[in-house]
Amino acid sequence: MKLRNLFRDLRRWYVGTPDRALDEAYQGALRIKAIEDEHFQGEPVSAEAGPDYCDRVLTYFESEVKNQIRTINLRLAEFRATRQVVGPGDSLGETAQAGIIIDKLNFIDEILKHYQPIAPSERKKALSLIPVDPKNTAAVPQKPPKKPSLPTPTKDKLASAGSKTGAVPRSILNTFSRVKRELDPQSLGSEGEVVKKFRQARDRTAIAVKFLLLLIIVPLLTHQLSKTFIIEPLIERQFFTTESEIVFLNQDLQEEAFRELEHYEKTLRFTAMLGLTPELSEREVETKLKEKADELAENYRQIGASSVSNVFADLCSLFAFGWVIVISRREIQILKDFIDEIIYGLSDSAKAFLIILFTDMFVGFHSPHGWEVILEGVSRHFGLPESRDFNFLFIATFPVILDTVLKYWIFRYLNRISPSAVATYKTMNE
After folding, report:
1. How many other β-carbons are positioned within 10 Å of the β-carbon of residue 45?
2. Would the CA dihedral through 220, 226, 232, 238 be positive or negative?
3. Is residue 11 pLDDT above 80, yes or no?
4. What is the mean pLDDT of residues 42-56?
5. How many CA atoms lie within 13 Å of 364's alpha carbon, on the beta-carbon side?
6. What is the rounded CA–CA span in Å between residue 342 and residue 322?
């Protein structure tokens, strides 16, 4: 019975693949449309539609649009491939659903034609997969074919091209254009539009900050609650009772307890010799040492139970973090845009300063001491014996790998996005 239900669920998931792929392509087109409406007055993403933006911001928006277009093309290819295999009768069955699919495809085509021309064959491939009722179809008047004509440059494009090579720098022309738009009450940059953009930015910032706090609070809260009320009491009851033989989780904890007991014995004898405490007989010293040993055994049993509980509590925290990520795709996109806006909004000197701070902290000259402290803390957190050989091997390899990845990122991406920041970084590093 369970196997039959599993196959039925798998078949339902596979049959719904075309609709799911088309929905993802449609969502990508909606994201492009949102960027156009919010930042480029409903026009395609270009320097002419957003003259107020610097080259780095335009590069960011263009990369976002390219990513969405790549997603749309992949999902449309998945839609066509799975549609041919599944067949129209398996997932549609109603003409109304076919109309919804046609509307989505038309909307996607309207968005994509601003950035890449859609071949008629590709459009026919997608539309031919949609069932149409012959009774509800009507003859569509055929328009006479137009003669191909050479594209004529528009006035705006000529003006933008002239501004790039004219005597007056484009930045000055953009400044005059921005001042004119701010003074004109009928322009799109009026007070109402500014207030609307401010509210949208405020809402996005609030959502990003709340989601970031959620990513931190939910795993920590899950760790503490699961460890305190479920995992640690169960571990103590099963493995670390007073009758059990397990006292120390590893050899390092045992040696630490022996040193503490030896220090306690020397303290007793030293204070008695100085007359600070009454002189104790050997029997009294043995009694006090036994009490101290019982106390140490109880403490180190709790340390062992806590270390074992940390392993399972960390797994619960990891599952909670993954669950938040899975159910918050929209918030992840907003947080990504928020972080990108902060990073791209930094000056070149600030970017170079943060890069130098990060590299010196984790891969610099003094970083081995920090990595050693981190590794010791992780070992103690999970109750593992400290291995100096492993620590030295990790310190000798991981920072080198991290430094290589960072240099590749600077060479491959940062040099293309912000070359001035790379130049500032090299100057400050020298």
Report:
1. 20
2. negative
3. no
4. 73
5. 11
6. 25
